[in-house]
Amino acid sequence: MKSLFFTIWRKEMLDAIRDRRSLMAAMSYAFFGPVLMAVAFMAIINDAVSESDVYVNIEGAEHAPAFVDFLNSRRVFAGTEENKARDIDVIIPDDYQAKLARAEMIEIIVRADYSVRSDSSQRNRVESAIREYSSTIAAQRLTLRGVSAEVIRPLVVDKQDTATKESRAALILGTVMVFVLMAIFFSGMNVAIDTSAGERERNSLEFLLAQPIPTHWLVMAKAGAAATFAFVGAVLSILMIPLVFVFVPLEKLGIEFSLSAASQVQMIVTLIPLALLASILQLFVSFRAKSFKEAQTYISLVMFIPVAVIFGIEFSRVEHPLLSVLPVTSQHQVLLNTIGGQAINWLHVGAGALVTLALTALLVWVVTRMLKSEKVIFGL
Amino acid sequence: MITTQGLEKSYKDVKALRGLSFEAKDGEITGLLGPNGAGKTTCLRSIYGLIHADQGTAMVDQIDASQEPLEVRRRIGIFPDKFGLQERLTAREHIAYFAALHGLHGKTGAEAVQKVIDDLGMQDIADRKTAGFSQGQRMKVALGQAIVHQPQNLILDEPSRGLDVMSTRILRELLYRLREQGRCILFSSHVMQEVAALCDRVVIMVAGQVVAEGTPQELCERTGQSSFEEAFVQLIGTEEGIML
């Protein structure tokens, strides 16, 4: 029976590998996921970290030379020919000096389209520079009147960041793990469809089922071939992570990132049961479809569920004891903990793997039963 | 040897088989002849156990397909109603795959495959991928995959559809050769002339029932008609199935 499994598995692998186009499609997902994230991070980091000069339109600069000097010291400049000003206007009123002398409130107008996201950090820089100058003047006035400047600062925030470098890395790199999990679900998809709905569309299913093969071996071998692809996709994306993140200046965010070979192996092993589950799930769906196209439609609907779960958990950070044993979520936790350098609860990992495998076995049984029904075989 | 005994099968609102009983003996070519929709494909599918009859039994070498489908499938070669090929495999790989599914691996497998390739005269296409094969070439691959394990029984569902003269001849010679080896060949067709020319015995079925059984000669005598064509028309009661 084992030789039957390998005969079918080998044939499905050969078939899938020769299908260059879907092979490339599958693997490019695993490949470009991490690359895409790396590029996105690079952009975010440069934006957040670099204290580049901000150029704005300053109206009425002649009324407040000291204020403008202060802005310049905070690297907020008036726009010039070569450095075009952004659409941010800082307007200084005519009566600036008079009001300043009388210690009245001066309105400095910052006019900009606050819905433009790309300018938000520049707007913040301008506003915080103005606030800083304002409190400097306030402190000087109080001192002149013989009052300590501390009077107007009853509470002071003392920020003490307890985040470790690893946990900060986990916050960012958790997003990358989403891509690893998605690679599992997408890399084997084409193979799963081709080996089930494709087989039916080619009219080769009837002959195959009329061979002396116990149906469950046929199902397992086909799922095994798809799972192999899903697994290779995930491995590829895990191996890609340290390679592409060499180019991302994470240290600027105070993040130290290293992914040892041991933790890579740990992640890879954790993902084996999930690859099996993803593939049998895809077989289950696409054996119900009459054609390749129909199967693709169904599968993309079904694949939406794990993707939604992964994204939901990644961004909401929900915690529940059940999540550490359910498929997808338990593997997600292991990946996160591994990358965050946290201790791994091997009991949970084992339980998660068992639940995933049990669900896989159940689906193998269901698909086997399906393939014994005339309705499914002949698409009646 | 293939026998069916009182096979009955209904789909939602159609009764496809109504107590079908016949026998196909070893060393003979038995033709299952009937107009379109007579239930020929349903009958063949229940012999290899992909369709479960509501009533009755289908036996291959005295083994019931509904009880031991795997044992039955080891003893038969099938040329199904719809035969699709794995287009990314070469003809040789294709046949070798099915040889391996029948337990023919390694050297034994390669020899079995080579024998089939020689028998069917397909040396020139053996190592080409099957995508883009002509209908005749596809038929050869389908026949090759059906007989690579040298089954005692061969079941063919309308094997000659879409074939040109040369391919039909190859098919006919193959069937004669297998008959000489004492194998049991059952094939279905709706083309009367083909059956008359090829078969030792004919089973004529209409609406899921056998209406007549015998050699073409016997059937002519029984109906008092001089030609098999007239006999067939009289037996099935319509002129359907005479068209080529």
Describe what you observe in this structure.
The complex is a heterodimer of chains A (380) and B (244). By secondary structure, chain A is mostly helical. Chain A folds into two domains: 2-45 and 167-378, no CATH class; 52-152. Chain A has 15 helices and four strands. Chain A has helices spanning 2-18, 20-49, 65-73, 96-102, 120-144, 165-187, 189-195, 197-201, 205-209, 215-245, 261-286, 292-316, 329-339, 346-370, 374-378, and strands at residues 54-59, 76-78, 88-91, 109-112. Chain A has a four-stranded mixed beta sheet. The model of chain A has no long low-confidence stretch (mean pLDDT 85). Chain B folds into two domains: 1-75 and 152-244, P-loop containing nucleotide triphosphate hydrolases (Rossmann fold, 3-Layer(aba) Sandwich); 84-150, no CATH class. Chain B has nine helices and ten strands. Chain B has helices at 40-47, 69-74, 91-101, 106-119, 135-147, 165-180, 192-198, 216-223, 228-236; strands at residues 2-10, 15-24, 28-33, 55-60, 63-64, 76-79, 153-157, 184-189, 201-206, 209-214. In chain B, the strands form two sheets. A six-stranded mixed beta sheet of chain B has the order 6-7-8-3-9-10, with helices on both faces. Chain B is globular and about 50 Å long. The mean pLDDT of chain B is 86. Chain A binds chain B through residues 3-4, 7-8, 11, 14-15, 18-19, 199, 201-207, 209-214, 374, 377-378, 380, and chain B through 11, 45, 48-52, 70-71, 73-74, 78, 80-89, 93, 97-98, 100-103, 105, 142, 145.
In short:
The complex is a heterodimer of chains A (380) and B (244). Chain A is mostly helical and 380 residues long. Chain A is built from 15 helices and 4 strands.
Q: Return the CATH architecture of the largest domain in chain B.
A: 3-Layer(aba) Sandwich
What is the string of SSEs of chain A from the N terminus onward?
HHEHEEHEHHHHHHHHHHH
Largest sheet of chain B: 6 strands, mixed
Question: Based on CA inertia axes, which overall geometry of chain A fits?
Answer: elongated
Contiguous uncertain segments of 5+ residues of chain B: none
Please bin the fraction of helical residues of chain B.
Answer: 25-40%
Name the CATH homologous superfamily of the largest domain in chain B. Answer: P-loop containing nucleotide triphosphate hydrolases
Task: Supply the number of structural domains of chain A.
Answer: 2
CATH class of the largest domain in chain B: Alpha Beta
How would you classify the helix and strand content of chain A by structural class?
Answer: mainly alpha
Assembly form of the protein: heterodimer
Largest protein interface, residues of each chain: A-B, 27 and 32 residues
The ordered string of helix (H) and strand (E) elements of chain B is EEEHEEHEHHHEHEHEEHH
The whole-number mean of residue pLDDT values of chain A reads: 85
Number of domains of chain B: 2
How would a textbook summarize the main sheet of chain A?
A: 4 strands, mixed
Query: Stretches of chain A where pLDDT falls below 50 for ≥5 residues?
Result: none
Count of β-strands of chain A = 4
Helical content of chain A (DSSP H or I, runs of 4+): 55-70%
Q: What is the average per-residue confidence, as pLDDT of chain B, rounded to a whole number?
A: 86
